[in-house]
Write a structure and sequence with these properties.
By secondary structure, the chain is of the alpha/beta class. It has one domain: Alpha-Beta Barrel (TIM Barrel), CATH 3.20.20. It has 8 helices and 10 strands. It has helices at 29-38, 58-67, 83-93, 108-115, 131-139, 169-178, 194-201, 220-230; strands at 20-23, 42-46, 73-78, 97-100, 120-126, 145-149, 183-185, 205-208, 213-214, 217-218. α3 runs parallel beside α4 (108-115) and α5 (131-139) packs parallel to α6. The longest helix is centred in the middle third of the chain and has 11 residues, at 83-93. The chain is globular. Mean pLDDT is 89; it is low at 1-7.
Length: 235
């Protein structure tokens, strides 16, 4: 299904405006509405992962995406790498955007494009070494946006997000400079560091999960404070 809200992945962002905010690890319709009311332009719905927080089942993902249809971008976070499996998962989820948390084999993005016309693709780049810049450049022509995170896909138990770890923002800034598509910054963001992250990286969007939660639950005070730290850059 095509996105009803094209501005979220539009770019590049003007230096005089703030990044869009994606609130990830949404657990319920109530949390989704709380995020949107606070100013989020996108929400993340986490499907089965090898590790990490925020996972909900496909039925709940679908119910949230249906409830929020036409009001906000809904991102399906998937760890799957097979295009056919991803396409089937998306058909179940009914989200506007697919966030690919792991790498795909050569030709995988093209296969997804063919089977899911109008659905946006966001590729996660895990910024663990300077090689991430090359990885970002290589895939940038295949997707609508990149999301820079702090996972470790090659670990014995892979981590693909929700780590609460900050990575090297100077590497992220180089990626923003070198690619022509929107870039989201994730990884350990919270109200205390998001303004510095924006100044350093100048991303199109910021993505936050653990930095807004208390005991796994989206916290209104943390959410409001985070949005205030982003808001001063808005015109």
């Amino acid at each position: 299904m095509a996105s009803a809200i094209p501005f979220v992945l539009a770019g590049p962002r003007s230096p005089m405006t703030s990044p869009v905010v994606k609130v990830c690890c949404i657990q319920s319709i109530e949390e989704a509405r709380m995020a949107v009311a606070a100013g989020a332009a996108a929400i993340g719905l986490v499907s089965e992962m090898p590790s990490g927080p925020g996972v909900i089942d496909d039925d709940r993902i679908r119910s949230i995406s249906r409830a929020m249809a036409g009001t906000v971008e809904t991102f399906l976070l998937t760890s799957k790498r097979d295009p056919d499996l991803i396409a089937r998962q998306h058909a179940q989820a009914e989200t506007t955007t697919i966030q690919l948390c792991d790498t795909l084999a050569p030709g995988g993005h093209s296969a997804l494009r063919a089977s899911l016309p109008g659905v946006r693709l966001v590729q996660v780049i895990h910024v663990s070494t300077p090689r991430a810049v090359l990885e970002a450049e290589e895939v940038s022509g295949e997707v609508d946006a990149l999301l820079l995170d702090s996972g470790r896909p090659s670990s014995k138990v892979p981590t693909l997000g929700g780590t609460g770890r900050v990575h090297d923002w100077t590497t992220s800034a180089r990626i923003v400079e070198r690619v022509a598509i929107p870039v989201y910054l994730a990884g350990g963001l919270h109200a205390g560091n998001v303004a510095e992250a924006i100044r350093t990286v100048s991303p199109h969007g910021v993505d936050v999960c653990t930095g807004l939660r208390v005991g796994g639950v989206l916290d209104q005070t943390k959410l409001t404070t985070f949005m205030k730290e982003v808001a001063p850059r808005r015109t």
